[in-house]
Design a protein that fits this description.
With 615 residues, the protein is of the alpha+beta class. Helix content is 33%, strand content 21%. The strands form six sheets. Strands 4, 5, 6, 7, 8, 9, 10, 11 and 12 form a nine-stranded antiparallel beta sheet that branches. Strands 3, 13, 14, 15 and 16 form a five-stranded antiparallel beta sheet that branches. The N terminus and C terminus are likely disordered. It comes from Lagenidium giganteum. This is Transmembrane protein. Keywords: Membrane, Transmembrane, Transmembrane helix.
């Protein structure tokens, strides 16, 4: 053969014609090549032919120069040295970050389940908080004061008082306990004073009728008997009066409290305000103090509709530091009786939490050295009470915790079984594909209102029946765990379906959300549960009133206020109009308001179905 070398065909080529393409890339991968002699390239030798046959058998490819590269297909992988830039050693965290993140979320879900179970033990049933003490040096309670009524007069002058209006007294001890005036409203105080002095004179009139009265010299000088009394005029008062004769070392101090009593064979108990009087050293600097010996005799007197009745006597330890006790009454013409306290019921946030406590019927007061006539703070009350609470939890509180724990545990278990060494956490990825987590988050936010009520109450009140510390933190921990878990899910929802958020990002975000939520719920919201912040905010955003509304305006006179700012945040927007003659009116026509709420600096008053016409 001259000029050409017969090509050697690889196995499986059949009679395929030689390639005419000039592109060397197209030539790559073909088993035969026509190589012209004129190119100066020698023809294939026997060794070349054998090598090509071997190459064809192994499925290898040829280079554009016609030489073959033999690839060993029996090898499964090529080992790359660790010091190479192509090393596959990516570190422990990057390799196990997904599983570690899942374990962290399972821990949060477990904390959620434990804290929710703890709260559920307090929910929807009566829980005894134990015996609670309010003292002068700890757990101090200030008696609320609106107008401090403090006056000294004689018993004879009080007996000659004329009650001008039934609106300011019915000649009963209950009037003294429920008299209400505005803040430093001295006109109102002057109106209730005659009834107060008259009732106290009726109390003193029973002293001569008490057998074995401890101060007969005071009874003998009853014509010179003086009385000094104080009252808070706050709607639920703690009135105290000191009876004394100038020059005598001893006095009688009476405390007015509401109680329940039963006399003789009467089966039904009466509930009314009674005066409990004890012998005490006369104090010329007396403020409101009524303390005495624990074994001192307490004389119980009732005044109702101008009639005074001596109910009997008992020992002070029966009615003081003995909450819930029924004190025996002896020495009256009505026979043996029983005196007990009326349990107080306090409702918080629309009865989400109700506290019931029978407190001491005879508490001890302290004003001297503590009460300030400027701030109206410092009248302290000392006594014991047995508190029981009923807390209403969210109906789905326990269900939410169970659902979220099962979801988190299932996703984490799946991660450990199928994706143990992955940089992607399965909990937020798979959690973002279901609405169950978001539903739990929404329901938890709604039910967190009830949990905050319980947390605030336990943080601000003493508990002696059990350790309330874990329960104070269980509520904040519940919400913080839910927020910590769902933060990662919300982040993943934002990137769906394009990206899987790295586990490091969702883990850090979840931990930050957990810590922030716990701190806010446990230490900020509860500790700052005061009205000062709200008052400051309202004052900052309030639009200033530029209208000069005269005090004779019918609406101002109707609500007894001097400014519309006590009724609304502004008089703009058509509320106040000025007529052509200069008269200022408030809107026009008839305003029908349901559940109208008037808010001022000291109190809020709600009036339902208020209808008034503008004159």
């Amino acid at each position: 053969m001259s000029g050409h070398v017969a090509p050697t065909r690889g196995s499986g080529d059949g009679d395929r014609p030689p390639s005419t393409s000039s592109d060397p890339n197209e030539e790559q991968g073909k088993e035969t090549t026509d190589v012209p002699i004129s190119k100066g390239i020698p023809g294939p030798t026997v060794e070349d032919t054998k090598r090509r046959q071997t190459q064809a058998t192994l499925g290898s490819k040829t280079t554009e120069a016609g030489s073959a590269v033999v690839i060993d297909h029996t090898s499964t992988y090529v080992e790359i040295p660790k010091n190479s830039k192509f090393s596959t050693d990516i570190g422990f965290w990057q390799s196990w970050s997904g599983s570690i993140s899942s374990a962290i979320f399972v821990a949060l879900a477990t904390c959620l389940a434990v804290s929710t179970y703890s709260l559920d033990k307090l929910a929807n049933k009566s829980v005894n908080l134990g015996t609670i003490e309010t003292a002068f040096d700890h757990d101090v309670w200030d008696v609320p004061v609106m107008t401090w009524l403090n006056h000294t007069t004689s018993v004879a002058a009080g007996a000659n008082q004329t009650i001008t209006s039934a609106s300011y007294g019915s000649q009963s001890l209950g009037d003294l306990q429920y008299d209400l005036c505005g803040r430093r409203d001295w006109d109102c105080a002057e109106k209730v004073r005659p009834n107060t002095e008259y009732v106290y004179s009726l109390v003193a009139s029973t002293f001569p009728t008490i057998a074995n009265f401890e101060l007969p010299e005071l009874v003998d000088a009853i014509g010179r008997l003086q009385m000094q009394y104080v009252s808070q005029l706050a709607g639920f008062n703690f009135p105290v009066v000191q009876y004394f004769v100038p020059g005598m070392d001893w006095a009688v101090v009476c405390t007015v409290r509401r109680g329940t009593y039963r006399l003789g064979t009467v089966a039904v108990s009466d509930i009314d305000s009674v005066a409990m009087c004890v012998k005490r050293q006369y104090d010329p600097a007396w403020g409101c103090e009524n303390d005495s010996d624990m074994d001192a005799t307490v004389y119980v007197i009732k005044v109702l509709n101008g009639r005074a009745t001596y109910l009997g006597q008992t020992k002070r330890h029966e009615v003081y530091y003995n909450p819930g006790n029924l004190a025996p009454l002896t020495g009256s013409v009505h026979g043996t009786g029983l005196l007990g306290t009326v349990a107080s019921n306090d409702e918080y946030q629309g009865a989400v939490l109700v506290s019931n406590a029978p407190w001491d019927i005879y508490g001890t007061y302290l004003c001297k050295g503590t009460f300030s006539s400027e701030t109206y703070l410092g009248m302290h009350w000392k006594g014991l009470g047995k508190a029981v609470i009923l807390w209403k939890s969210s109906a789905l509180m326990l269900t939410n915790a169970a659902v979220l724990w099962v979801m988190t545990a299932y996703f984490a278990a799946t991660q450990l079984i199928y994706l143990p060494r992955s940089c992607v956490c399965a909990v937020p990825v798979w959690g973002s594909k279901t609405l169950a987590g978001l539903v739990v988050l929404v329901l938890a936010c709604i039910g967190n209102y009830n949990v905050q009520v319980l947390t605030t109450f336990l943080s601000n009140n003493s508990v002696t029946a059990f350790d309330a510390g874990p329960y104070r933190l269980a509520g904040p921990l519940t919400m913080a765990c839910i927020v910590g878990i769902m933060t990662s899910t919300v982040i993943q929802i934002y990137f769906n379906p394009h990206l899987a958020t790295p586990s490091s990002i969702v883990t850090v975000a979840g931990i930050i959300s957990f810590v922030l939520g716990f701190v806010l719920e446990a230490f900020v919201i509860v500790a700052q549960c005061v009205a000062i912040v709200a008052i400051v905010v309202l004052e900052v955003i309030r639009r200033r009133d530029k209208s000069n509304v005269p005090a004779t305006n019918s609406v101002l006179r109707l609500f007894g206020t001097k400014s519309f700012l006590t009724l609304s945040s502004s008089t703009r927007g058509g509320i106040v109009k000025t007529l052509s003659n200069g008269d200022v009116v408030v809107d026009g026509g008839v305003l029908l308001s349901k559940n109208f709420v008037r808010v001022c600096d000291n109190y809020a008053v709600r009036s339902c179905n208020v209808k008034y016409a503008i004159i």
